[in-house]
Amino acid sequence: MSPPQPTATSPRFFVLNGPNLNLLGTREPSVYGHDDLAALDARCHACAERLGMTVECRQSNHEGVLVDWIHEAGRRAAGLVLNAAAYTHTSVALRDALAAVDLPAIEVHLSNIHAREPFRHRSMIAPCTIGTIAGFGPLGYELALTALVERLQATAGAPPAGAPSPRSPSHPNPSDG
Ligand code: DQA
């Protein structure tokens, strides 16, 4: 069966990347790999298309901008993939923003934060997410998008991914625009 095609009512997910991730490709490639942010975004878009959904990918180095985008995701998206980068370990503001919106969110890290410096082991945002994926590089974003789709289908009572029935947009975006 051919994969579902995104439509105007396909679930929209946000992928938000935090500080210094605009430097992917040149930033510590032994830790973060050689793919740049454009390649990561392209991978997310291709994955979203395969899953029959749409995705908006954004990056900011500024905490308040990320807070605003989480609020926007709460109004316009059905789910959120968040790599808050260094703010993961420090930001009460991001944690509060996630707690304030009624949105399934998954925390992603390219590197395995638990195998790195102790200050990276603590996540301020993890309690406000449905799960964390760390250490799989860009694949982690695809895993997170896939998990969000499964979560939406489970909450909508639809069959899980891979089931024979066609996947319908059972959880349209809260609002358009
Ligand atoms: C990161 C891990 C963080 O500890 C770090 O500050 C980052 C990137 C990751 O994707 O592995 O900037 O979130």
TrEMBL record:
<protein>
    <recommendedName>
        <fullName>3-dehydroquinate dehydratase</fullName>
        <ecNumber>4.2.1.10</ecNumber>
    </recommendedName>
</protein>
<dbReference type="InterPro" id="IPR036441">
    <property type="entry name" value="DHquinase_II_sf"/>
</dbReference>
<dbReference type="GO" id="GO:0019631">
    <property type="term" value="P:quinate catabolic process"/>
</dbReference>
<feature type="binding site">
    <location>
        <position position="83"/>
    </location>
    <ligand>
        <name>substrate</name>
    </ligand>
</feature>
<keyword id="KW-0057">Aromatic amino acid biosynthesis</keyword>
<feature type="active site" description="Proton donor">
    <location>
        <position position="109"/>
    </location>
</feature>
<dbReference type="GO" id="GO:0003855">
    <property type="term" value="F:3-dehydroquinate dehydratase activity"/>
</dbReference>
<keyword id="KW-0456">Lyase</keyword>
<dbReference type="InterPro" id="IPR018509">
    <property type="entry name" value="DHquinase_II_CS"/>
</dbReference>
<dbReference type="InterPro" id="IPR001874">
    <property type="entry name" value="DHquinase_II"/>
</dbReference>
<feature type="binding site">
    <location>
        <position position="89"/>
    </location>
    <ligand>
        <name>substrate</name>
    </ligand>
</feature>
<comment type="pathway">
    <text>Metabolic intermediate biosynthesis; chorismate biosynthesis; chorismate from D-erythrose 4-phosphate and phosphoenolpyruvate: step 3/7.</text>
</comment>
<comment type="function">
    <text>Catalyzes a trans-dehydration via an enolate intermediate.</text>
</comment>
<keyword id="KW-0028">Amino-acid biosynthesis</keyword>
<feature type="active site" description="Proton acceptor">
    <location>
        <position position="32"/>
    </location>
</feature>
<dbReference type="GO" id="GO:0008652">
    <property type="term" value="P:amino acid biosynthetic process"/>
</dbReference>
<dbReference type="GO" id="GO:0009423">
    <property type="term" value="P:chorismate biosynthetic process"/>
</dbReference>
<dbReference type="Pfam" id="PF01220">
    <property type="entry name" value="DHquinase_II"/>
</dbReference>
<feature type="binding site">
    <location>
        <position position="120"/>
    </location>
    <ligand>
        <name>substrate</name>
    </ligand>
</feature>
<comment type="similarity">
    <text>Belongs to the type-II 3-dehydroquinase family.</text>
</comment>
<feature type="binding site">
    <location>
        <position position="96"/>
    </location>
    <ligand>
        <name>substrate</name>
    </ligand>
</feature>
<feature type="region of interest" description="Disordered">
    <location>
        <begin position="156"/>
        <end position="177"/>
    </location>
</feature>
<dbReference type="GO" id="GO:0009073">
    <property type="term" value="P:aromatic amino acid family biosynthetic process"/>
</dbReference>
<feature type="compositionally biased region" description="Pro residues">
    <location>
        <begin position="161"/>
        <end position="177"/>
    </location>
</feature>
<comment type="subunit">
    <text>Homododecamer.</text>
</comment>
<feature type="site" description="Transition state stabilizer">
    <location>
        <position position="27"/>
    </location>
</feature>
<feature type="binding site">
    <location>
        <begin position="110"/>
        <end position="111"/>
    </location>
    <ligand>
        <name>substrate</name>
    </ligand>
</feature>
